[in-house]
Amino acid sequence: MVRMGPDVPLLNEYKQEFFWKRFPQTLLGGPRFKLGYCAPPFVYVNQAVLFLTPWLFGGIGTLLCQLKLLQELHATVLAGMLMFGAAVGVQALAVYAARRSGTVERLGAPNILVDEEEVEFTHCVGPETVRFIAPGKRFGLNVVLHTVLAGVLCGFGTWYVFLGRLTALYGSIGISMVVFVLSWVTLCIAEYSLIVNTATETATFHAQDTYEITPLTRPLYIFIFIAVDLVVRFSGPVPELQLASQVLHVLFLFLPLLWALGILPPLDALLLWGMEQTLVFCLGGSPMSSNLRLLLMFAISASVAVSNYFIPSTLGVVLFSVSMGFLLSLDLSQVGTLCRRPRAAFGDHGFRRGGSPPPPPSSFGWNLGFRELLLYLSVFLVAMAEAGLLHHFLGSAQPQGLVTGPQGPVSYLLLGLFCLCWTLREIQGAYVFGGVFLNPLYPKGMNSVQTFKQRSRGLYFAAAIRRVLLYVVSPFAMIAFLSMDKSLQLLHRVSLSVGFTRAFRLVWQNSEDALLQMVVVVLVRLAAGNSMLPGWDNLGTGVQLLLVGLLLDRVTQFLSKLKFTLTVLVTSWTEKKQRRQSAGTLLALNASLCPLLLLVVTLSALLSAPLLPLFTLPIFLVGFPRPQRSWPGPVGTACPCPDSIFYQQMSTSLASALRTAFARGSLGSLAPGSHFLGRFQDRMVWIMILERGYGYCTVNIKGLELQETSCHTVEARRVDEVFEAAFERPERLGFTQGLNLHWGNALTPCAALTVRVYSDARNVLSGIIDSHDNLRKLQDEFLKALVWLLLRYCVQKHKGFLWSGEEGPGAGGRKSQSSTFAQTTSNQPPEAVVVESNVSSLRFRQDSSSLTSFGDWSDEDDLFGPQPARRTVALVTAEAQPGLAALQTGASLPGSVEMDSLFENMALSALQPLGLGIGMPAVDKGRNPEVFREGPGSLPQLNFSCPQSEVFNLPTGWRTAPLLPSRLLQLRTLFPEDWFRFSLGQFGSAVQGETSEHMTKALKEDEALKELHAQVALSCLISVGAESAFTSPSYVYRLYCGDIPWTEGLDWLSSSKELYQLALRAFRFSFKLLFDQASLGPMESPEELFSTLEEYERDWYIGLVTEKGWHDSVLQEKPFLFSLGHDLAMGTYTGRVLSLQEQLVQVGRLNGEGVRGQWANLSWELLYATNDDEERYSIQAHPFMLRNLTVQAADPPLGYPIYSSAPLHFPCL
């Protein structure tokens, strides 16, 4: 992304024109009076007539009622029937026009030069005119439903705004007329959007309105107003209801403005938000990780509250509330998963895709075993016994005051528990007192993981004490406080039933919040002393706790929104790169309208709605209320790329670290909707709390892109600065150094977590790969590695688990990855997946040779510079072979380059007709391919002098290379005989079990066995073009990539897949040996070389980052990975090493309201204003708000995280 200046247009010219055409349509409910082209007058007249039709019919009913010709009820029915008839006529015309226009479109040829929005109108009621004004409905059911609702809405709307009713409410004809006129404007807007044409709403939750729910939004809000008026009319003269009716009639006039500003949510968002708020604040639950879970939990929790109302015994109510509160606070949906397979509760569909699941951890809660069942059952029984006994013996006592009653000692215990738990939680993080001061007890310096763990032992002990107090002692203390409450005697009232249902549930669902709320209630009672607070005391303890919880939540939201508001206001001027020309004007307006700004912030907090900064400027609106998750789709959608595997790999270890941090309180108070940001090297992890219960937490982990764009780099640098100020500070701090200088930033550092991740090291290989001394050694290293692999191949074949299954520790230790391809009859080594598509059959090689030979006419010189690796035609052809799955290629990871051939997607058989066979070796297609080599029957019989030599015999086909014996004889001196004998002795002892010196000596002296391996090794050497010493780095790189130019023996080598794999792996091993020796020094002994090759085979994956084997090795957590890459821009070769180790991942808390506000603006800007410009102002880097990172973390299609886990459920006890 090219970072642009602060005065980049908020909307480009095209989008500005589009917006100013769309917004009037939204304001009026659907009429399109502003077009981008000239239209006949009848188009506007028709829309105006349809817009005013409901007013006409309602006016007729009102007039007849005022003239006493009809009663109110009859006038209402008349207006409704007239509107119903008009709606039927409009829908019939729409259906007719759709059929006619469909016929015309099929017969006529479309004019592609005409603007797609321009319509040629021929007649006032022509098909194109009708279709433009009233597009019609997609579903027949909606045609009937919307038509009926249009009639009902007009009828009840007429009744709602009768002049007589309005005059009785306000006592003034003038006021009544104003309200009457403006109310009918509101009704006409709702009717038009319902039956004629629906406008695009600014409050858009879903990107697509699949089921045509949007037309019902505006009528629904009108029906809510009418329902309140009906209650007032039929409930008798109640002053409060009369006042409410007067206020609502005035608010009714402003509904069009509320719709246009997007403050009122659409139906789906309203339903989900309403259920979530009721579940949390009335029923004591938690926001859920999915809509289905929310619906089920709401239904079950509501049924518990209803049951409590009808249970006659207060003791039964207490026992039922305690039991159901405890059970519903557990993650019961994961019980079956935990019983079937440990850790499957992560629900990530294989969480470590491509690899087997990790061994189940022994820590508490990961699986549902005996310990977990015993703990939960014990807590359940003790809570039931405590609640029942205390209520039975002490619940009916009438205390004189809080201090002298049975609740007094428990109240003081709650105060002490809260202070202790809060203090122990504060010292767990890097900052204290809301992120203002540095925590002097937190470990200084992040030099090593072990040092950090040692310095944190004291905090671990404090966290263990807090865990016992919070999750064991506090719930029982709170249950004791509630069970002895006197207001339980008045339980059979709706408010008290709901209040105590919530209180007993919240004790388990969120013990920390429940403890805070009870402490507030206790403090109010202590402050009142023996005096009575009639209004407060009559509510009962359950309702008091409900109101306190609601108040604390709204105050917390208000403070977070206010901090976000100040950040936007201040940085719009102080940050030079954010200072627009209008910044001074906007600041002056906000200062002069400060009460209005505070009103907007307060209203958004009261509604629990996001505070929307328009275009992320200091222009604040109230976004429509929505669930805490902010997005309607399921959790776990992402825009995957090759880098996604690094986040997928670290998710398991990160979840385990988060589990520990949550239990210790290192990340502060955990509330659903909280957002955290983790940072390690070039990786950014976005963590969101989805739901919370007793002993469990559900989170979503997202991974942000690794590509360093300018905006990403600016914000990542600021994130690093914030973390460095918190975690890499000196031992002794002064007062000013102890302050958080980044307090105004959206990110507040919390803790460092120990996570097993891959550390990424990249090196430029200048001086290594282009050193002639090193290249001359490569041939010898290749032969040694190949000899070692051939012997190991024989040993594993003898043991019967060649290339399949999981090998034991030692020289194997690799799980076969070839299962991802369609299996052939022969098993393949692990790297078969990597280079399978680079192997060509003999039949293919007889048809033609590799197109890469065009680049090899200059032998091995670098006349035209280094030759980049590219996908060969052999690769493409092998992908198309039956029985082989296509190689999953994608964008290369950083550090590697892959250039595609011009003909990469073309079958090789199509190249000859194109005349691309010129210059290739001549081939006689009529001859049998087997003529090129000796048949197996003509090979001389091998006479081994040692019986054990048969174990190390190689397949017969590997001896049939079409090479002259004289060529092999010339290269015979290159074969490393001493290394062969040493390796044979090492592998021979493994085959024989107990070491036998005589047998080992006989193996080493078997000349036939030595000649066999020498023949195969030297044949491979010639076939890969390494007959002479390597002199070209580009040639080395091409061989490493498997892009082998055509040679005389390549067809023979390619025909044996196993031998091809061994030869390619040997070359990659030899290059890794060369790299290590150039960096660390030469090998001092054969034993060291042997152990190094064993380590390569066991702990390393050596290949390319674009191969599937690399992907699978990362997910299987191979300890080390090595890749060779070529940077074409710099003209250098690079080495990349990934090392799996425990590292400290720094995690900080984000301002949740700032994230919700930016996401609300993103939704408005993309879904309504359609401002998808990649260089738009609202996506530019903002070091304080972290605007670019926040946009990335949004759910697709608006955001683009490269990894997003399914909801991860893990224990927190």
What does this structure look like?
There is one protein chain. Helix content is 51%, strand content 7%. By secondary structure, the chain is of the alpha+beta class. The strands form 3 sheets. Strands 5, 6, 7, 8, 9, 10, 11, 12 and 13 form a 9-stranded mixed beta sheet that branches. The protein has a two-stranded antiparallel ribbon with strand order 1-2. A two-stranded antiparallel ribbon has the order 3-4. The protein is globular and about 125 Å long.
- Overall mean confidence score, pLDDT: 82
Number of helices: 41
How many runs of DSSP E, i.e. beta strands? 13
> How helical, in percent, are the residues?
40-55%
Distance between termini?
A: 44 Å
> Tell me, what's the shape?
globular
Low-confidence spans: pLDDT under 50, at least 5 residues?
Answer: 103-116, 342-361, 803-937
Largest sheet: 9 strands, mixed
> How much strand?
5-15%
Structural class of the helices, strands and pairings? alpha+beta
